[in-house]
Amino acid sequence: MGIYLSTPKVEKFSEDGENEHLRYGLSSMQGWRATMEDAHAAYTNLDDSTSFFGVYDGHGGKVVAKFCAKFLHQEVLKSKAYLTGDIGTSLQKSFLRMDEMMRGQRGWRELSILGDKINKFTGMIEGLIWSPRSSDGNCQVDDWAFEEGPHSDFAGPTSGSTACVAVIRNNQLVVANAGDSRCVISRKGQAYNLSRDHKPNLEIEKERILKAGGFIHAGRVNGSLNLARAIGDMEFKQNKFLPAEKQILTANPDINTVELCDEDEFVVLACDGIWDCMSSQQLVDFIHTKLYTETKLSAVCELVLDRCLAPSTAVGEGCDNMTMILVQFKRPAQCNASTEEQSSSTGQAEPETQLERSERTELHEVVPFMGSIEYIEY
Question: Which of 331, 350, 324 is nearest to 29 (CA)?
């Protein structure tokens, strides 16, 4: 549940940016929580043709979220797959690479630099609104050389973080997700989920957890963690006979690739502090109303955070840290085919995508995305 403050911290970190193809706004707020464990990254020009946006929701401490915000996009840039144009594979490898990089002396040192307190007796790293500076972006080259030191055997942090990332290159949108942060696209005012919330009771997650020797109690992995995928949380990744993607908990992301078309208006990435309070469709509807009155996208995000903040901690929902990134497309892209034609031609979408679209007059129940989508589980 976490520790709550007597009054919420409503100060926000907000920023806006743009390039010739899109503009974005973001905002983060600590809220009722005693600490701020979210982090984010936003780069309109990861390279000459690519934009990168990421939301990282930490648990058990802020350090893993901050680590991902600082390094994940750099790993994407360095990936051989990225250099050949395979953004999905580069994202998948970079998610798993985060766990590798946080081990050993170098991992220990970097986590310490990022500011979390280290318990001198146990050696455990315990869990500021934070995002990397622009100078921490795509200009750094680091081969992550092995370092000798007193913490060479450091197994990695016991805290962890979700990661939900959107990479936009030309008319292609690639979404990678591990955890319960979420990415949603608005197409003609209709919300479509581009990621799946990784909860332990999902059949595919439950099967992996049980096969790896874990268990689920009260909807939590081994009775403690209410996520089935995350970066960090090394105590759940100790089976030396299993690869990273088959551990009790895995950082292995789902990958969705979408061909954008002229009906696509904006994309939202947000942590569960938002989704606990608003459905995907409710958030899309809210954003549409505010786009007419607000000039800055960060102002729209701030209004969402204020809308979700609970009046007291008695409710539960609306008491979490909140982070949201809103990315609006400046120019319509060209659709190669209609939504229905593309959905039937891929044959790789989730079974859920066969559901018919809900009527807008009914309850706001989001429809999984049915456009040009390639769903990949590595």
Answer: 324
Q: Which amino acid is at 60?
A: G
CB 33 within 8 A of CB 4: yes
- Structural domain containing residue 246: 4-377
- The burial of 364, by beta-carbon neighbours within 10 Å (0-12 exposed, 13-18 middle, 19 or more buried), is given as middle
Instruction: Tell me the CA end-to-end span of the chain in Å, nearest whole number.
Output: 32
Taking alpha carbons only, the member of 135, 127, 131, 73 closest to residue 325 is 131
- Rounded to two decimals, what is the model's pTM? 0.84
| Burial status of residue 226 (CB atoms within 10 A of its CB: 0-12, 13-18, 19 or more) | middle
The CATH number that applies at residue 212 is: 3.60.40.10
- Tally of domains in the chain: 1
Looking at the DSSP bridge assignments, the partners of residue 29 are 12, 322
Model confidence pLDDT, tens digit, residues 252-290: 999 999 999 999 999 999 999 999 999 999 999 999 999
* Phi, psi angle pair for 192, to nearest 5°: -130, 125
Instruction: Give me the helices (H) in the chain, please.
Output: 63-78, 80-83, 87-101, 104-113, 203-211, 272-275, 280-291, 297-308, 339-346
